[in-house]
Structures are given as C-alpha cells and as structure tokens.
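How it folds:
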Amino acid sequence: MSHLKHFFDALVVSSLIAFGTHISYGAVVITATETEDGVVFLGSGSLNLYGLSFQGNYITGAGINPSRRVLLLGTFNLQIVTADTYLGIDGPTSFGTRNALTYPDGETGDRFGITFSGSDQTLLAVPKNYVSGSPLSGSNTYLGYRFSSFGMTPDATYTWSLPNDRLTLQIIPEPSTLLLGTLATMGLLLRRTWRI
C-alpha cells in the first residue's frame, strides 16, 4: 500500500509541475498551442481600460508579427475592421523573431490584442466602443505553421501591464512534449521513492 501512496503522490507532484507552470492571473490570457495542423491562439478575459490614453480608431486586420509584438485576435474578413487603441501599456517589444505580418487561416470572436504605433509605442487594441470590463473572446489559427516558424519559444510567458490590468501570452508546448515531460518526472519520482 505504501508504494501505491507514493505513486499517487508522484502523480500529483508531476501534474502540478507539468500544468502548474501554465497558470496565469492576467485579466486577459492568450494561449498559443501547437497542433498537428498549425498554431492556434485562443484568448479570453476582460480588460480595465482606466488609466490608459485613448489614441483613436485603428484600421486593422487580425494577424501576428512576433518580432514587432503584433498579436491581434478575432474575426478577419476581406473587409478591414476598426478597433479602438490605447496607449499606456508596458511589456515586451517582441515574443518571437519572425518579422513579417502573417494573416490567420481561421478566426473567431472579438478583435483585440497588442500592436504598436507609428512611433513604436505599444498599443492595446480592443473592439470599437469596447466598455471596460466587458468579456473578450477570440481566436486565430495559422495552418502549416509551427512555433519555430514564428521564432517563438515553447513554454514561455509574456505579460503586458496596463495601469489596472494585464494581458498575458502563454506559449504552451505541444501536448506530446508536455506528456513526455510529465511521464519522465513521474518515472524519476517513482524510482527515487521505491529506492527508499
């Protein structure tokens, strides 16, 4: 029975190690996951705009340019959609090395995310007439791409701070890598436990 208890303890610890690193407390969390078909960005939450400086309307489509910190989620039609932009957000100036704007192959939901101004300042983009604290939800799919295509590091987290909120991007390793790491950790813990 003692070995069974140690097994379950090891399972709990390895699960916390594997999945606990991906817990974020940002008001909006965007996760990037690699699938068999490509890379999927999925974001949701709400944002408090208090303390930000309204910059005006921004005509934009959804897309990603990691070296320029552009990550705009949401529906992208052949028409260009207008979003409201705000200044007063601090954070990384890149989350990958690819310096080319790439449009998604699939998209859903609200238009929101991070972009930059003509003077290279980080801007927050939200749906036109967005009411502070309202729910946001959107996704983009890039078929045929990998994290390496964008120069993104798996298992990394990037956070942009607003005066009263945060937007967090989490780049989650593909499930097989995560599973392999979990199993390896479990094996090491079990081996150590059974030696005692």
